[in-house]
Design brief:
The chain contains 14 helices and no strands. It has 409 residues and is an all-alpha fold. Helix 8 packs parallel to helix 10.
Length: 409
Protein backbone atom coordinates (compact mmCIF):
# COMPACT_ATOMS: atom_id res chain seq x y z
CA UNK A 1 0.00 0.00 0.00
CA UNK A 2 1.35 3.42 -1.02
CA UNK A 3 0.83 5.32 2.24
CA UNK A 4 2.05 8.78 3.21
CA UNK A 5 5.45 7.48 4.36
CA UNK A 6 5.96 5.71 1.03
CA UNK A 7 4.97 8.87 -0.81
CA UNK A 8 7.55 10.87 1.16
CA UNK A 9 10.23 8.24 0.43
CA UNK A 10 9.27 8.34 -3.25
CA UNK A 11 9.80 12.12 -3.16
CA UNK A 12 13.24 11.55 -1.58
CA UNK A 13 14.11 9.05 -4.34
CA UNK A 14 13.06 11.31 -7.20
CA UNK A 15 14.66 14.34 -5.57
CA UNK A 16 17.99 12.51 -5.31
CA UNK A 17 17.79 11.28 -8.89
CA UNK A 18 17.60 14.97 -9.69
CA UNK A 19 20.56 15.69 -7.40
CA UNK A 20 22.62 13.01 -9.15
CA UNK A 21 21.74 14.47 -12.53
CA UNK A 22 22.33 17.99 -11.28
CA UNK A 23 25.86 17.40 -9.99
CA UNK A 24 27.12 16.02 -13.30
CA UNK A 25 25.03 18.01 -15.78
CA UNK A 26 25.58 21.45 -14.22
CA UNK A 27 29.24 20.65 -13.55
CA UNK A 28 29.77 19.73 -17.20
CA UNK A 29 27.95 22.78 -18.54
CA UNK A 30 29.91 25.18 -16.31
CA UNK A 31 33.17 23.47 -17.24
CA UNK A 32 32.35 23.65 -20.96
CA UNK A 33 31.47 27.32 -20.61
CA UNK A 34 34.56 28.34 -18.63
CA UNK A 35 37.12 25.60 -19.30
CA UNK A 36 37.89 25.46 -15.58
CA UNK A 37 36.88 23.26 -12.64
CA UNK A 38 36.90 26.42 -10.52
CA UNK A 39 33.45 27.29 -11.87
CA UNK A 40 31.84 24.26 -10.26
CA UNK A 41 34.03 24.68 -7.20
CA UNK A 42 32.77 28.24 -6.85
CA UNK A 43 29.20 26.95 -7.04
CA UNK A 44 29.97 24.65 -4.11
CA UNK A 45 31.42 27.57 -2.15
CA UNK A 46 28.23 29.56 -2.87
CA UNK A 47 26.18 26.72 -1.42
CA UNK A 48 28.32 26.55 1.71
CA UNK A 49 28.31 30.30 2.39
CA UNK A 50 24.63 30.76 1.57
CA UNK A 51 23.77 27.76 3.73
CA UNK A 52 25.24 29.41 6.79
CA UNK A 53 23.73 32.87 6.32
CA UNK A 54 20.32 31.88 4.97
CA UNK A 55 19.99 29.12 7.56
CA UNK A 56 19.54 31.89 10.13
CA UNK A 57 16.39 32.95 8.29
CA UNK A 58 15.23 29.54 7.05
CA UNK A 59 14.69 27.92 10.46
CA UNK A 60 12.38 30.61 11.87
CA UNK A 61 10.48 30.85 8.56
CA UNK A 62 9.76 27.12 8.64
CA UNK A 63 8.66 27.33 12.27
CA UNK A 64 6.31 30.21 11.49
CA UNK A 65 4.87 28.71 8.32
CA UNK A 66 4.07 25.37 6.75
CA UNK A 67 7.04 22.98 6.32
CA UNK A 68 5.13 21.12 3.63
CA UNK A 69 4.47 24.25 1.56
CA UNK A 70 8.05 25.49 1.95
CA UNK A 71 9.55 22.12 0.95
CA UNK A 72 7.29 21.87 -2.09
CA UNK A 73 7.89 25.50 -3.09
CA UNK A 74 11.68 25.01 -3.05
CA UNK A 75 11.40 21.98 -5.34
CA UNK A 76 8.90 23.71 -7.66
CA UNK A 77 11.19 26.74 -7.88
CA UNK A 78 14.39 24.88 -8.73
CA UNK A 79 12.52 22.56 -11.10
CA UNK A 80 10.95 25.34 -13.14
CA UNK A 81 14.17 27.40 -13.11
CA UNK A 82 16.13 24.49 -14.58
CA UNK A 83 13.48 23.99 -17.24
CA UNK A 84 13.67 27.71 -18.10
CA UNK A 85 17.48 27.47 -18.21
CA UNK A 86 17.19 24.57 -20.65
CA UNK A 87 15.20 26.81 -23.02
CA UNK A 88 17.31 29.95 -22.60
CA UNK A 89 20.90 28.74 -22.51
CA UNK A 90 24.02 30.60 -21.49
CA UNK A 91 26.37 30.39 -18.56
CA UNK A 92 25.03 33.62 -16.99
CA UNK A 93 21.51 32.22 -16.81
CA UNK A 94 22.83 28.94 -15.40
CA UNK A 95 24.87 30.77 -12.76
CA UNK A 96 21.72 32.59 -11.67
CA UNK A 97 19.81 29.30 -11.48
CA UNK A 98 22.62 27.66 -9.46
CA UNK A 99 22.65 30.61 -7.07
CA UNK A 100 18.88 30.48 -6.52
CA UNK A 101 18.89 26.69 -6.12
CA UNK A 102 21.66 26.83 -3.53
CA UNK A 103 19.86 29.63 -1.71
CA UNK A 104 16.84 27.34 -1.37
CA UNK A 105 18.72 24.42 0.21
CA UNK A 106 18.72 25.73 3.81
CA UNK A 107 14.95 26.17 3.57
CA UNK A 108 14.56 22.65 2.15
CA UNK A 109 16.68 21.13 4.96
CA UNK A 110 14.76 22.84 7.75
CA UNK A 111 11.39 22.14 6.12
CA UNK A 112 12.23 18.46 5.60
CA UNK A 113 13.23 17.98 9.24
CA UNK A 114 10.00 19.64 10.43
CA UNK A 115 7.84 17.76 7.91
CA UNK A 116 9.03 14.20 8.62
CA UNK A 117 7.40 13.81 12.08
CA UNK A 118 4.13 15.07 10.60
CA UNK A 119 4.18 12.13 8.18
CA UNK A 120 6.09 9.32 9.91
CA UNK A 121 4.88 7.68 13.12
CA UNK A 122 7.31 8.24 16.05
CA UNK A 123 7.87 4.49 16.41
CA UNK A 124 9.02 4.30 12.79
CA UNK A 125 11.44 7.24 12.72
CA UNK A 126 14.60 5.12 12.99
CA UNK A 127 13.40 2.79 10.26
CA UNK A 128 12.37 5.76 8.12
CA UNK A 129 15.80 7.39 8.37
CA UNK A 130 17.58 4.14 7.50
CA UNK A 131 15.34 3.65 4.47
CA UNK A 132 15.77 7.29 3.50
CA UNK A 133 19.57 6.88 3.61
CA UNK A 134 19.32 3.82 1.35
CA UNK A 135 16.99 5.60 -1.05
CA UNK A 136 19.37 8.57 -1.07
CA UNK A 137 22.10 6.25 -2.37
CA UNK A 138 19.80 4.61 -4.93
CA UNK A 139 18.62 7.99 -6.21
CA UNK A 140 22.15 9.35 -6.51
CA UNK A 141 23.28 6.22 -8.37
CA UNK A 142 20.35 6.37 -10.78
CA UNK A 143 20.85 10.08 -11.40
CA UNK A 144 24.58 9.77 -12.04
CA UNK A 145 24.05 6.70 -14.23
CA UNK A 146 21.39 8.49 -16.30
CA UNK A 147 23.41 11.69 -16.73
CA UNK A 148 25.97 10.23 -19.15
CA UNK A 149 23.53 8.71 -21.69
CA UNK A 150 21.21 11.74 -21.53
CA UNK A 151 24.10 14.15 -22.18
CA UNK A 152 25.51 11.93 -24.93
CA UNK A 153 22.30 11.27 -26.85
CA UNK A 154 19.98 14.16 -25.95
CA UNK A 155 22.26 17.11 -25.21
CA UNK A 156 22.64 19.51 -22.32
CA UNK A 157 19.32 21.33 -22.82
CA UNK A 158 17.32 18.12 -22.51
CA UNK A 159 19.46 17.06 -19.54
CA UNK A 160 18.67 20.32 -17.71
CA UNK A 161 14.97 19.91 -18.47
CA UNK A 162 15.01 16.31 -17.24
CA UNK A 163 16.79 17.45 -14.08
CA UNK A 164 14.14 20.12 -13.54
CA UNK A 165 11.33 17.64 -14.17
CA UNK A 166 12.52 15.40 -11.31
CA UNK A 167 12.25 18.28 -8.86
CA UNK A 168 8.77 19.19 -10.11
CA UNK A 169 7.57 15.59 -9.66
CA UNK A 170 9.09 15.53 -6.15
CA UNK A 171 7.30 18.80 -5.35
CA UNK A 172 3.97 17.35 -6.50
CA UNK A 173 4.43 14.34 -4.21
CA UNK A 174 5.33 16.55 -1.22
CA UNK A 175 2.55 19.07 -1.80
CA UNK A 176 -0.12 16.34 -1.92
CA UNK A 177 0.97 14.65 1.33
CA UNK A 178 -1.50 14.37 4.20
CA UNK A 179 0.30 15.64 7.29
CA UNK A 180 -2.21 15.16 10.11
CA UNK A 181 -0.33 12.26 11.74
CA UNK A 182 1.52 14.04 14.54
CA UNK A 183 -1.16 14.85 17.12
CA UNK A 184 1.41 15.88 19.74
CA UNK A 185 2.76 18.83 17.82
CA UNK A 186 1.52 22.16 19.21
CA UNK A 187 0.36 24.94 16.92
CA UNK A 188 3.06 26.64 14.90
CA UNK A 189 4.14 30.23 15.31
CA UNK A 190 2.39 31.35 12.17
CA UNK A 191 0.32 33.87 14.14
CA UNK A 192 3.39 35.39 15.76
CA UNK A 193 4.99 38.61 14.60
CA UNK A 194 5.60 38.26 10.84
CA UNK A 195 9.25 37.44 10.33
CA UNK A 196 9.74 39.40 7.12
CA UNK A 197 8.27 42.69 8.30
CA UNK A 198 11.21 45.06 7.77
CA UNK A 199 10.92 46.82 11.12
CA UNK A 200 10.71 43.63 13.15
CA UNK A 201 12.81 41.14 11.21
CA UNK A 202 16.05 41.44 13.20
CA UNK A 203 14.18 41.53 16.51
CA UNK A 204 12.17 38.45 15.55
CA UNK A 205 15.25 36.54 14.42
CA UNK A 206 17.13 37.42 17.58
CA UNK A 207 14.23 36.32 19.76
CA UNK A 208 13.69 33.09 17.80
CA UNK A 209 17.30 31.98 18.13
CA UNK A 210 17.50 33.14 21.75
CA UNK A 211 14.51 30.90 22.50
CA UNK A 212 16.32 27.91 20.99
CA UNK A 213 19.56 28.61 22.85
CA UNK A 214 17.65 28.87 26.12
CA UNK A 215 15.89 25.61 25.29
CA UNK A 216 19.28 23.96 24.72
CA UNK A 217 20.51 25.24 28.09
CA UNK A 218 17.45 23.80 29.78
CA UNK A 219 17.49 20.51 27.85
CA UNK A 220 20.95 18.98 27.95
CA UNK A 221 19.86 15.99 25.88
CA UNK A 222 18.85 18.32 23.04
CA UNK A 223 22.22 20.07 23.17
CA UNK A 224 24.10 16.74 23.19
CA UNK A 225 21.96 15.42 20.35
CA UNK A 226 22.55 18.44 18.15
CA UNK A 227 26.32 18.06 18.49
CA UNK A 228 26.45 14.27 18.30
CA UNK A 229 24.20 14.16 15.21
CA UNK A 230 27.05 15.84 13.31
CA UNK A 231 29.41 12.89 13.79
CA UNK A 232 28.00 10.73 10.99
CA UNK A 233 28.06 13.57 8.46
CA UNK A 234 31.62 14.50 9.45
CA UNK A 235 32.65 10.87 8.96
CA UNK A 236 31.23 10.92 5.42
CA UNK A 237 33.10 14.15 4.71
CA UNK A 238 36.36 12.61 5.93
CA UNK A 239 35.77 9.50 3.83
CA UNK A 240 35.01 11.48 0.66
CA UNK A 241 38.02 13.74 1.19
CA UNK A 242 40.43 10.82 1.47
CA UNK A 243 38.95 8.50 -1.16
CA UNK A 244 40.62 10.02 -4.23
CA UNK A 245 44.12 10.20 -2.63
CA UNK A 246 43.65 6.62 -1.44
CA UNK A 247 42.92 5.41 -4.97
CA UNK A 248 45.79 7.49 -6.37
CA UNK A 249 48.37 6.00 -4.00
CA UNK A 250 47.12 2.46 -3.56
CA UNK A 251 45.70 1.74 -7.01
CA UNK A 252 47.90 4.09 -9.08
CA UNK A 253 45.00 6.43 -9.84
CA UNK A 254 42.92 3.76 -11.60
CA UNK A 255 39.49 5.39 -11.85
CA UNK A 256 37.87 1.95 -11.94
CA UNK A 257 38.59 1.63 -8.24
CA UNK A 258 36.69 4.84 -7.53
CA UNK A 259 33.66 3.24 -9.19
CA UNK A 260 34.17 -0.02 -7.29
CA UNK A 261 34.47 1.71 -3.91
CA UNK A 262 31.54 4.03 -4.61
CA UNK A 263 29.48 0.99 -5.58
CA UNK A 264 30.52 -0.90 -2.45
CA UNK A 265 29.56 2.09 -0.32
CA UNK A 266 26.15 2.47 -1.97
CA UNK A 267 25.28 -1.24 -1.79
CA UNK A 268 26.31 -1.47 1.87
CA UNK A 269 24.30 1.66 2.71
CA UNK A 270 21.25 0.13 1.06
CA UNK A 271 21.78 -3.11 3.00
CA UNK A 272 22.10 -1.09 6.19
CA UNK A 273 18.52 0.08 5.83
CA UNK A 274 17.31 -3.48 6.41
CA UNK A 275 19.62 -4.17 9.36
CA UNK A 276 19.11 -1.02 11.45
CA UNK A 277 15.85 -2.30 12.93
CA UNK A 278 17.66 -5.31 14.42
CA UNK A 279 20.95 -3.67 15.39
CA UNK A 280 19.36 -0.70 17.17
CA UNK A 281 18.05 -2.92 19.99
CA UNK A 282 21.48 -3.29 21.62
CA UNK A 283 22.87 -0.98 24.31
CA UNK A 284 25.16 1.79 23.07
CA UNK A 285 24.12 0.96 19.49
CA UNK A 286 24.92 4.45 18.16
CA UNK A 287 28.28 4.67 19.92
CA UNK A 288 29.17 1.18 18.70
CA UNK A 289 28.32 2.17 15.13
CA UNK A 290 30.59 5.22 15.42
CA UNK A 291 33.42 3.04 16.72
CA UNK A 292 32.91 0.63 13.82
CA UNK A 293 33.23 3.58 11.42
CA UNK A 294 36.48 4.57 13.11
CA UNK A 295 37.75 0.99 12.82
CA UNK A 296 36.76 0.86 9.14
CA UNK A 297 38.74 4.04 8.41
CA UNK A 298 41.77 2.57 10.20
CA UNK A 299 41.46 -0.56 8.04
CA UNK A 300 41.21 1.61 4.93
CA UNK A 301 44.41 3.38 5.86
CA UNK A 302 46.38 0.23 6.70
CA UNK A 303 45.07 -2.27 4.17
CA UNK A 304 47.18 -2.96 1.08
CA UNK A 305 44.79 -5.26 -0.79
CA UNK A 306 41.84 -4.45 -3.00
CA UNK A 307 39.36 -6.87 -1.37
CA UNK A 308 40.17 -5.56 2.11
CA UNK A 309 39.71 -1.97 0.94
CA UNK A 310 36.32 -2.85 -0.52
CA UNK A 311 35.32 -4.69 2.67
CA UNK A 312 36.41 -1.74 4.86
CA UNK A 313 34.44 0.67 2.66
CA UNK A 314 31.31 -1.47 2.93
CA UNK A 315 31.73 -1.78 6.70
CA UNK A 316 32.07 1.99 7.01
CA UNK A 317 28.92 2.62 4.96
CA UNK A 318 26.89 0.03 6.88
CA UNK A 319 27.84 1.52 10.24
CA UNK A 320 27.35 5.09 9.01
CA UNK A 321 23.76 4.49 7.92
CA UNK A 322 23.07 2.77 11.24
CA UNK A 323 24.37 5.58 13.46
CA UNK A 324 22.90 8.29 11.25
CA UNK A 325 19.44 6.71 11.52
CA UNK A 326 19.72 6.44 15.30
CA UNK A 327 20.96 9.98 15.91
CA UNK A 328 18.49 11.65 13.54
CA UNK A 329 15.49 9.72 14.87
CA UNK A 330 16.67 10.47 18.42
CA UNK A 331 16.89 14.17 17.57
CA UNK A 332 13.37 14.03 16.11
CA UNK A 333 12.02 12.43 19.30
CA UNK A 334 13.70 15.09 21.44
CA UNK A 335 12.46 17.87 19.13
CA UNK A 336 8.92 16.53 19.51
CA UNK A 337 8.94 17.57 23.18
CA UNK A 338 6.02 19.86 23.94
CA UNK A 339 8.28 22.78 24.86
CA UNK A 340 10.29 22.81 21.62
CA UNK A 341 8.02 21.10 19.07
CA UNK A 342 7.46 24.45 17.33
CA UNK A 343 11.24 24.95 16.92
CA UNK A 344 11.97 22.11 14.49
CA UNK A 345 13.07 24.45 11.70
CA UNK A 346 15.52 26.20 14.01
CA UNK A 347 16.73 22.86 15.41
CA UNK A 348 17.54 21.69 11.88
CA UNK A 349 19.31 24.98 11.20
CA UNK A 350 21.32 24.72 14.42
CA UNK A 351 22.37 21.16 13.58
CA UNK A 352 23.64 22.30 10.19
CA UNK A 353 25.44 25.28 11.76
CA UNK A 354 27.20 23.01 14.27
CA UNK A 355 28.15 20.67 11.43
CA UNK A 356 29.50 23.60 9.41
CA UNK A 357 31.61 24.80 12.36
CA UNK A 358 33.03 21.34 13.05
CA UNK A 359 33.73 20.82 9.35
CA UNK A 360 35.51 24.18 9.15
CA UNK A 361 37.64 23.34 12.17
CA UNK A 362 38.63 19.77 11.26
CA UNK A 363 38.61 19.36 7.47
CA UNK A 364 41.47 21.86 6.85
CA UNK A 365 43.58 19.87 9.32
CA UNK A 366 42.79 16.65 7.51
CA UNK A 367 43.42 18.28 4.12
CA UNK A 368 46.81 19.45 5.37
CA UNK A 369 47.78 16.03 6.71
CA UNK A 370 46.84 13.69 3.86
CA UNK A 371 49.20 15.02 1.12
CA UNK A 372 52.09 14.49 3.50
CA UNK A 373 51.09 11.20 5.10
CA UNK A 374 47.91 9.38 4.01
CA UNK A 375 48.28 6.81 6.81
CA UNK A 376 48.36 9.61 9.38
CA UNK A 377 45.19 11.07 7.85
CA UNK A 378 43.50 7.71 8.28
CA UNK A 379 44.37 7.88 11.99
CA UNK A 380 43.22 11.48 12.46
CA UNK A 381 39.73 10.80 11.10
CA UNK A 382 39.08 7.72 13.30
CA UNK A 383 40.33 9.66 16.33
CA UNK A 384 37.82 12.45 15.67
CA UNK A 385 34.96 9.96 15.23
CA UNK A 386 36.00 8.10 18.38
CA UNK A 387 35.57 11.37 20.31
CA UNK A 388 31.92 11.41 19.22
CA UNK A 389 31.49 7.76 20.27
CA UNK A 390 33.01 8.32 23.71
CA UNK A 391 30.93 11.49 24.18
CA UNK A 392 27.78 9.52 23.31
CA UNK A 393 28.56 6.94 26.00
CA UNK A 394 29.44 9.60 28.59
CA UNK A 395 26.29 11.56 27.77
CA UNK A 396 24.11 8.55 28.48
CA UNK A 397 25.69 8.14 31.92
CA UNK A 398 25.76 11.87 32.69
CA UNK A 399 22.15 12.69 31.91
CA UNK A 400 19.16 11.60 33.95
CA UNK A 401 16.98 8.67 32.92
CA UNK A 402 14.29 11.01 31.65
CA UNK A 403 16.78 12.98 29.57
CA UNK A 404 18.37 9.92 27.99
CA UNK A 405 15.14 8.12 27.16
CA UNK A 406 15.39 9.27 23.54
CA UNK A 407 19.12 9.96 23.40
CA UNK A 408 20.89 7.53 21.08
CA UNK A 409 21.31 4.13 22.69
Amino acid sequence: MFNREHRLLAAVLIDNIGNGLHSLVVGKILFDATGSVWAFGLAIVFEYVLGIFLGVIAGPMVDRGSPQKIAATVDYLRGFLLIVASCYGGSTMLWLVVLVINAGKPFARSASFALIPQVVHPDRLTQYYSRSAAIFQIGQLLGVAAAGPILAYCGTAFALAADGATYVVSAVLVSTLRTSLNHHQPPSNRHATPLLTASTMLTSLRQDWTDLILAMKGDRALAYNLVLAAGDFLAITYFNLMLAPLVALRFHGDATWLTILDGAFALAAIAGAFLTKYLSKSDHAAASALLVQALALVLLGQSASGPMTVAATALFALANVHSLSLFMSSLQHRANSTKIANMKGRIAGMRHLILAILTTLTVPVLAWIYPQNLSAAFWFAPAAITVFAVTTILAKHTLTTDETIVLAK
